[in-house]
Specification:
Elements lengths: L5 E5 L10 H15 L3 E6 L10 E4 L7 H10 L8 E4 L13 E6 L3 H5 L5 H20 L2 E4 L13 E2 L21 E5 L8 H12 L7 E5 L11 E3 L5 H10 L2 E4 L8 H8 L4 E4 L2 H6 L7 E3 L4 H9 L2 H15 L4 H12 L18
Parallel strand pairs: 1-2, 1-4, 2-3, 4-5, 5-6, 6-7, 8-9, 8-11, 9-10, 11-12, 12-13
Helix pairs in contact: 1-11, 5-9, 7-10
Length: 359
């Protein structure tokens, strides 16, 4: 590592106040950079994450349209004391230079999500957020996408750097897995994660062939009685989640859309075979199905039932997934960002001069 940098990281979401995956990734990357000796301050609407090794600047935004109002609030902050501004969202009004280097990471496409989301109001909100992503890509010095397919919606991107998985926490264990078939799900019951559809496929196709099977659902919005064989685990700690990955037989997240899909990579790093519906993120993380199973929703239940009965196929998938997950190790991801932060010159285009630190 070169000289320690002062890094301002922007993420509206954090694990302390939201289950949105972008917040978890921003937290993990900020933690890794702070452990490497950089001074990192997280600018967020969410409260501080307990025990986080980085600083925190809390920008409170009450009322409606908070993500848009948060962006306006960030615009008013003095960021001239930082070497790097690294935004994971909500930096689209920062067109005047605020730090020596402005990096924007695009974690997916709201335009892509708008094609699949239900409800005219939510679709409009996604389109507006998509326009903000385009503007942010124009404003930043360096624009990073987390998967190659995301480039379709980004007018200018400089690099593809995937999301990172902390392999010190997510890794296989020598202890045996559960003594009965277990499918693990991490997501939401409602919406694009399609937990309800997985529960239906499990009930109709898996239980008749594997009466002792269980579906473990790490979710906070499931109904009180989700169905036979279904255990709702609620929100888990980091260690509890890692233990669940190591105990289950299969991981399944049948999302209609993922920009990347961190749970896929976490499961693969833990030696857990992955089954997913074919979406942008699952396609990339599983290397187009070479390191996991991609299927459509109607065939999801039968594929799960077949794999639960085939230990050899599960072992092959686990090995391929673990090899693929090595590319998403958080240490490698942080290495790539550090290299980008250290690039000279620190601008990609003509910009207004940096304000004096004394200003």
């Amino acid at each position: 590592m070169g000289e320690p940098l002062r890094i301002a990281m922007i993420s509206y979401y954090l694990p302390s106040g939201s289950k949105i995956g972008v917040g978890f990734q921003a937290h993990e990357l900020a933690s890794e950079l702070a452990r490497r000796g950089h001074h990192v301050d997280m600018i967020s609407e969410c409260p501080p994450v307990p025990g986080a090794p980085y600083g925190h600047r809390h920008v409170r935004v009450p009322g409606s349209l908070r993500t848009f109002r948060f962006a306006l609030a960030v615009r008013r902050l003095d960021l001239s004391g930082y070497d790097v501004l690294h935004a994971h969202g909500d930096d689209y009004w920062l067109w005047r230079r605020r730090a020596r280097l402005h990096v924007r990471t695009v974690h997916g496409s709201c335009f892509e999500e708008a094609r699949r989301i239900r409800g005219a109001k939510e679709r409009l909100r996604m389109v507006l957020l998509g326009l903000s992503e385009v503007l942010a890509a124009v404003v930043a010095d360096r624009t990073v996408v987390v998967s190659p397919q995301t480039r379709r919606w980004v007018p200018r991107s400089d690099a593809t750097i995937p999301n990172g998985v902390d392999t010190r926490r997510f890794h296989p264990a020598p202890a045996p897995r559960a003594d009965h078939p277990v499918v693990l799900f991490v997501g939401t019951w409602h919406g694009r994660k399609r937990g309800a559809d997985l529960a239906d496929a499990f009930t109709r196709h898996v239980l008749p062939r594997h009466p002792d099977a269980e579906l473990w659902m790490v979710t906070r919005d499931a109904p009180d009685a989700p169905g036979p064989g279904i255990r709702v685990l609620g929100a888990l700690t980091d260690q509890e989640l890692a233990d669940a990955y190591r105990a289950a037989w299969l991981f399944c997240l049948p999302s209609s859309y993922e920009g990347f899909g961190i749970p896929y990579a976490e499961a693969m790093a833990s030696g857990l075979p992955v089954v997913a519906t074919d979406n942008v993120g699952a396609r990339y993380v599983t290397d187009h199905g070479r390191a996991g199973v991609l299927t459509d929703l109607p065939r999801l239940g039968p594929r799960l039932a077949d794999l639960l009965a085939d230990a050899e196929a599960r072992a092959a998938l686990a090995a391929a997934g673990q090899a693929r997950a090595a590319e998403f190790a958080l240490s490698h991801v942080a290495d790539r960002y550090e290299a980008m932060f250290a690039e000279r010159p620190w601008t990609a285009r003509l910009r207004a001069p940096l304000r004096s630190r004394a200003a």
